[in-house]
């Protein structure tokens, strides 16, 4: 059975998603949305994302993508590929890829749905969300809000995209005409 793959990310100006192993902001409305999307589901993440969490996400099946299958991640399955992770996921519904950069790159080639939180503010960061071909995606939901981050009113958007039906050609993550880099 082919599993439905969803990508989830919170992205600031410039495509920033992380800094020194952490999210550079605290945005409670985004955390609530993340919980609503992923609760009682399977979440898949890279090893760096796993380590940044400090342990498994409660009420979810946690799968860590790692090329070392002997690696022990207490409270999670360790799998070497997204395809294998989707195949062994025991929770019903879609599999949510929650980061970092490499798992997102792989997932963006096969995902059916993309859940983005766009944070309209600059942050220092060392991890960026991968570029993707915007022509392959159709926006189906947008919700705009504002919430203070570090005392500064900050505008954000919850966006949901679905993959357009039958896109010919490669599903490459390399930038090309129509590519979105989330740079501002």
TrEMBL record:
It is an enzyme of class 1 (oxidoreductase). GO terms for biological process: dihydrofolate metabolic process; folic acid metabolic process; one-carbon metabolic process; tetrahydrofolate biosynthetic process. One of its GO terms (molecular function) is NADP binding. This is Dihydrofolate reductase. CDD domains: DHFR. Key enzyme in folate metabolism. Catalyzes an essential reaction for de novo glycine and purine synthesis, and for DNA precursor synthesis. Its EC number is 1.5.1.3. GO terms for cellular component: cytosol. Residues 4-163 form the DHFR domain. Keywords: NADP, One-carbon metabolism, Oxidoreductase. Pathway: Cofactor biosynthesis; tetrahydrofolate biosynthesis; 5,6,7,8-tetrahydrofolate from 7,8-dihydrofolate: step 1/1. PROSITE patterns: DHFR_2. Belongs to the dihydrofolate reductase family. Signal peptide: none annotated. It catalyses: (6S)-5,6,7,8-tetrahydrofolate + NADP(+) = 7,8-dihydrofolate + NADPH + H(+).
